[in-house]
């Protein structure tokens, strides 16, 4: 258990470069990163094994490993923009986000770092918002800011920008889908600059990354991840804001919804959320009273990288085949695979890493995996 306000980790320059190289290498996402470091003992050891893992897993082409020169260049270019790459447990890495199993190993942070260590509430909603929705989002953001919360949102048009603007003086966090130098939408670049005075911006993407459609759900998990709770002000059916609400619930965050007219399609999603158990709110006080009891709870942070390299178990061909035979498109738990095969846990983990680095395996939450 950790005091969220106090840094618990500090990477050396060499480890930060190794971490960046690993997360920027082909087919290495946050969960894979953690599995590799836990399995091989360090990012440096994992980097040495990536080509061999991909080959053993049946990759159609060699896995690209980020070079040391590229990692150093990214760190230097980031610094010129005022962006620092922080690890979970370091000052400037939001503590709530650090507790997730798919937390970014390195997060690009920019702005007032102190704001990132304060309690946050996410506010999301329709890009095509009504006047009433925009006004209410601004009112919530302003009142929650006065109550001591930083407002997190995605810098999108509509509800997001209304919440950001209303919280400029108290502190607001922009969660980016692209790199820090690829703001979307472009017309909100000036808004972001205003936000950086008392607030901040974060991104897990490298500089130069232009956001694509698939990047926004990844971004949404960060909005809910940094927050104690997420408010959905307006959302139609099949809205991106509903994805954020679903992810928030999966992460154990509070989900709040603002009711709307049954005749307005922009309220259909929020009204459904209330039917499904989201907390109905009509003022900021409703949110404050719900999150106050959980604000003082200590946060479990992942352990920092071990200093010693742990020898990894090597599977033989028959063990590799037995694990592969069990896998399919339906997610299966690691413990189930170990039990059904009778193979040592370390060997099973190695086979899964081989398949993953080869681009043949997908990791889900709660230790579930499936073949692609």
What does this structure look like?
The protein is an alpha/beta fold and 372 residues long. The protein has 3 domains: 13-93, no CATH class; 108-295, 3-Layer(aba) Sandwich (Rossmann fold); 317-371, Winged helix-like DNA-binding domain superfamily/Winged helix DNA-binding domain (Arc Repressor Mutant, subunit A, Orthogonal Bundle), CATH 1.10.10.10. Helix content is 43%, strand content 12%. The protein contains 15 helices and 12 strands. The chain has helices at residues 13-23, 30-40, 43-56, 68-80, 95-98, 131-146, 159-166, 189-198, 215-225, 240-250, 268-275, 284-295, 317-326, 334-341, 345-357, and strands spanning 84-86, 107-111, 120-124, 150-153, 172-175, 200-203, 229-232, 254-257, 279-280, 332-333, 361-363, 368-371. Strands 1-2-6-5-4-3-7-8-9 form a 9-stranded mixed beta sheet. Strands 10-12-11 form a 3-stranded antiparallel beta sheet. Helix 7 (159-166) links the parallel strand 4 (150-153) and strand 5. Helix 1 (13-23) packs across helix 4 and helix 13 packs across helix 15 (345-357). The longest helix has 16 residues, at 131-146. The protein is globular, with a radius of gyration of 21 Å.
């Amino acid at each position: 258990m950790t005091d969220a306000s106090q840094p618990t980790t500090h990477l050396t320059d060499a480890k930060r470069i190794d971490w960046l190289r690993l997360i920027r290498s082909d087919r290495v996402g946050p969960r894979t990163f953690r599995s590799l470091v836990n399995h091989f003992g360090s990012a440096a050891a994992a980097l040495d094994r990536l080509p061999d893992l991909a080959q053993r897993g049946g990759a159609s082409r060699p896995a690209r490993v980020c070079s040391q020169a590229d990692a150093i260049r990214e760190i230097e270019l980031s610094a010129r923009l005022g962006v620092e790459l922080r690890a979970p447990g370091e000052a400037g890495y939001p503590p709530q986000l650090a507790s997730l199993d798919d937390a970014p190993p390195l997060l690009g942070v920019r702005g007032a770092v102190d704001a990132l260590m304060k309690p946050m509430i996410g506010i999301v909603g329709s890009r095509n918002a009504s006047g009433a929705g925009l006004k209410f989002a601004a009112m919530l953001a302003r009142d929650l800011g006065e109550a001591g919360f930083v407002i997190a949102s995605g810098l999108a048009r509509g509800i997001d920008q209304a919440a950001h603007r209303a919280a400029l003086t108290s502190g607001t966090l922009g969660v980016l889908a692209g790199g820090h130098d690829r703001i979307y939408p472009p017309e909100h670049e000036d808004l972001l600059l205003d936000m950086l005075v008392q607030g901040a911006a974060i991104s897990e993407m490298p500089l130069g990354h232009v956001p694509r459609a698939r990047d926004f759900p990844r971004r949404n998990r960060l909005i809910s991840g940094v927050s104690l709770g997420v408010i959905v002000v307006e959302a139609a059916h099949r809205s991106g804001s509903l994805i954020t609400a679903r992810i928030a619930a999966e992460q154990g965050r509070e989900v709040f919804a603002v009711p709307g007219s049954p005749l307005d399609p922009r309220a259909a999603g929020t009204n459904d959320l209330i039917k499904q158990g989201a907390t109905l709110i009509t003022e900021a006080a409703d949110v404050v009273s719900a999150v106050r009891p959980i604000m003082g709870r200590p946060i479990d942070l992942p352990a920092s990288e071990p200093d010693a390299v742990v020898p990894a178990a090597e599977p033989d061909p028959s063990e590799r085949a037995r694990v592969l035979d069990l896998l399919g498109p339906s997610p299966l738990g690691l413990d189930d695979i170990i039990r059904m095969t009778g193979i040592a846990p370390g060997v099973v983990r190695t086979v899964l890493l081989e398949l993953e680095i080869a681009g043949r395996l997908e990791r889900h939450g709660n230790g579930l995996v499936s073949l692609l």
